[in-house]
């Protein structure tokens, strides 16, 4: 059993409608792809813009 949409996508849904049965090969392929995406995720390159000091309330 595997989650159709899982924690890698930020979903914590363990309901029956979010589960499916996969063979070992497909499960390993899906899980490996998700783990690789998380491991290689890059933070944003730019800092978010800050408010001008004169505009802070």
TrEMBL record:
It comes from Streptomyces sparsogenes DSM 40356. Residues 31-57 are annotated as: Disordered. Residues 47-57 have a biased composition (Basic and acidic residues). This is HNH endonuclease.
